[in-house]
Write a structure and sequence with these properties.
- The protein has three helices and two strands.
- It is of the alpha+beta class.
- The protein has a two-stranded antiparallel sheet with strand order 1-2.
- The longest helix has 10 residues, at 9-18.
- The chain binds iron/sulfur cluster.
C-alpha cells in the first residue's frame, strides 16, 4: 500500500493520529521515489484478511474504478492504472 504524500515516519504518525483506523498499518519500506510503503498487521501468512468483517471502507472498495490522485501498483499486481487527462474528462 502506498500513500503518495506520506514521506517520513513523522508524516505517517500524523496520518495515524488524524485517522486512528490507520493504526493497523506499519511502515514496510520505501519505493524508489521515497514514498513509504505500508503493510497491514491484519494480513495472515496466507495473504488473507483476518478481520474481514471489520475491514476498512477503503478495503471494501478496493480496487476502486476511479481514483483522483496518482496511482501506482506493485510489480506483478493483476490490476492496472489507466491515466486520463483533465481534458479527456471535459470531452465526455
Ligand atoms: S483487507 Fe484486511 S488485511 Fe487487507 S488492508 Fe484491509 S484490514 Fe488489512
Amino acid at each position: 500500500m502506498y500513500a503518495w504524500d506520506t514521506y517520513t515516519t513523522t508524516d505517517f504518525k500524523i496520518m495515524q493520529f488524524l485517522f486512528p483506523q490507520y493504526r493497523r498499518f506499519y511502515i514496510r519500506g520505501k519505493d524508489e521515489e521515497g514514498n513509504l510503503i505500508f503493510a497491514c498487521k491484519y494480513v495472515t501468512e496466507e495473504g488473507l484478511c483476518s478481520v474481514y468483517d471489520k475491514r476498512l471502507k477503503m478495503c471494501r472498495n478496493y480496487p476502486a474504478k476511479k481514483i483522483n490522485y496518482p496511482g501506482k501498483l506493485h510489480e506483478g499486481c493483476g490490476y492496472k492504472v489507466e491515466e486520463k487527462s483533465f481534458e479527456s474528462y471535459l470531452k465526455k
